[in-house]
Specification:
This protein is mostly helical. Helices cover 63% and strands 4% of the residues. It has a four-stranded mixed beta sheet, sandwiched between helices.
Length: 566
């Protein structure tokens, strides 16, 4: 069962591609896709916007968007094929990336067994599938895998024809995602490896250097062929070295601080062992590993890139391991190979099932659809205040009729982000900010989605009559100012427990992803108190304290109410 069978057996390739395509199907859960669709709609209707049009706190500023191709193409797919078409497009990028990586092994110096290829694909799938949530960087993953195919082939015969597609890949990436510099950097390192391998042949060395310089210059030029020019090219460098990203957003956190810490640890260890034990040893592999291991350590979103650049050396290591174990494990090699392939298929299926995101369409409860429908129907006057990531869907669903306060593109350098935090923390003067912007509608979560912290503004709104709750859904709560509500004749939700049940609903989800966050249990304790569940409130508070949390006011409340519950 050699790779020659893999490369020549089209039925097997078709079967593998179809299997991966199905495995990569995902429902829409990540809210960022909605602002991509909003920009795609704007680009196709009016051209690339030069000024902000979605977020009213940024009106007059330049439009902060750099994934023009991604937004436009996905909007067209949405218009023609709906969410099912988008799911297939997203899955196609994932399946094509893994097939490309397997293809790169054709040009390596050794032959590979089919079970080894399947095992390498399975491990890589586990490490990168969590980022296939309708993001433009999935185009970067495919372009990187495609470049590795070309560059591995180039290292075999040093023919420049294998490098000519690199500038085109650079152009493709820069139109979809500001990360062409990553592709150019990988190409440069492969070029350096080629020079190292030919260091004894000075004539050939000069020829290679000229050809490589031409390709790299062309790739850089193509990467600058976008509305932002060279700024788009160097954006990842500024991002990595800077500190203006929004804190608390999972994808920007260090890998070891997230639920994907074990993805990073297992990948980092296996890849390093594979590189060090590879024969012949290639300096290229170690340099790429160090670079992308740092990027993945710094931001969890970069784990897939580390997995992609580690695929070839990892496969080489697994092949050596397969051959070695085959000499002392009993049974026919073909039977062991078949068992390995079936085990890999089962692992991919289990990994997919564990995500709880397999399928097509929108995930139930991920979008504030009821809130958007209410605004469409009643058209309240004034402006809208929304919690951070809810602005992505609201900007899309309201089609610009109600510009949002903030959306997922904002970072800590933006004015809107600072005011957003000021209001939702209920800092001194928050009411004045609402009056300043004539805000009469508030759409928000009850808790922060990563830490489970109860949002102070929600606690205030739950205990006064000036703002009335008019809609509640899994994605959030909608409040309208009482004067505006009475004019519109929107019926309020009179049940005072709805808000606190929402807190429990949201923290149930947060508990699955981050059970060690103390604030989850504080929020639940407060919610249980309002629901007259003193025993459960006390249990949650004890868990809060066991994780290092302190809240003297809540402690006094529970102490005072203890005799009543007993």
């Amino acid at each position: 069962m050699r790779l020659t069978r893999f490369t020549s057996s089209y039925p097997f390739i078709l079967l593998l591609t179809s299997f991966l395509l199905i495995a990569f199907l995902r429902v829409i859960d990540d809210s960022d896709i909605w602002f991509h669709l909003s920009f795609g709609r704007e680009i196709l209707n009016h051209g690339i916007p030069d000024r902000e049009f979605l977020v009213f706190t940024r009106f007059g500023e330049s439009a902060d968007y750099n994934s023009w191709g991604f937004g436009s193409i996905y909007f067209l797919i949405w218009e023609m094929f709906g969410s099912a078409g988008m799911a297939l497009a997203n899955a196609s990028l994932g399946a094509a990336t893994l097939i490309m990586l397997a293809t790169a092994l054709r040009y390596n110096s050794r032959s590979y067994s089919l079970p080894v290829v399947c095992l390498a694909i399975t491990l890589t799938y586990i490490w990168l599938e969590f980022r296939y949530v309708y993001r433009p960087e999935t185009v970067l993953y495919l372009a990187t895998a495609s470049a590795i195919v070309l560059l591995e082939r180039y290292l075999r015969d040093y023919s420049i024809r294998w490098l000519w597609p690199i500038p085109l890949l650079s152009l493709l990436v820069t139109l979809f995602h500001p990360s062409a510099i990553i592709l150019i950097g990988i190409t440069g390192l492969y070029a350096a490896q080629a020079l190292w391998q030919q260091r004894q042949n000075k004539t050939r060395l000069q020829q290679l250097l000229k050809a490589q310089s031409l390709i790299l210059v062309a790739a850089i030029a193509m990467a600058c062929a976008n509305p932002l020019g060279y700024e788009q090219l160097i954006m990842p460098v500024r991002f990595t070295l800077g500190s203006s990203v929004t804190p608390g957003i999972t994808e920007f956190l260090p890998a070891l601080e997230t639920e994907y810490r074990y993805h990073f640890i297992s990948l980092a260890i296996l890849a390093l062992v594979a590189i060090l034990y590879r024969r012949p040893f290639r300096p290229l592999d170690l340099v790429l590993y160090c670079l992308f291991c740092y990027l993945a350590f710094k931001h969890v979103r970069n784990i897939p890139l580390l997995a992609i650049i580690s695929f070839v050396p990892l496969s080489s290591f697994l092949q050596r391991l397969w051959v070695t174990t085959g000499t002392w494990l009993p049974g026919k090699q073909s039977l062991k190979g078949t068992a390995m392939i079936l085990l890999c298929a089962a692992t991919i299926l289990l990994t997919t099932a564990n995500t709880k995101l397999w399928g097509m369409g929108k995930k139930h409860g991920c979008c504030p659809t009821a809130s958007a429908n209410l605004i469409h129907e009643h058209k309240p006057r004034g402006r809208l205040l929304n919690f951070y990531d809810l602005g992505n869907y609201l900007g899309w669903a309201l089609r610009g009729e109600y510009p949002v306060f903030i959306d997922g593109r904002n970072n800590i350098a933006s004015r809107g982000y600072g005011m957003h935090n000021h209001i939702f923390r209920a800092d001194t003067g928050w009411q004045q900010l609402l009056n300043l912007y004539d805000i009469r509608t508030i759409i928000t979560r009850a808790t922060l989605d990563y830490s489970g912290t109860l949002i102070p503004l929600v606690e205030i709104l739950a205990n006064q009559d000036q703002w009335q709750l008019v809609a509640a859904e899994p994605a959030g709560l909608t409040f309208i100012h009482e004067k505006e509500r009475s004019i519109l004749d929107v019926p309020p939700i009179k049940d005072p427990t709805v808000i606190w049940k929402q807190v429990l609903l949201e923290t149930d989800i947060t508990l699955e992803n981050n059970p060690q966050s103390a604030d989850i249990y504080r929020s639940r304790s407060i919610a249980y108190l309002h629901l007259n569940e003193e025993k459960l409130a006390r249990q949650s508070y004890l868990l809060f304290k066991s994780l290092g949390g302190t809240d003297p006011q809540l402690d006094r409340k529970l102490t005072a109410e203890k005799p009543q519950s007993d």
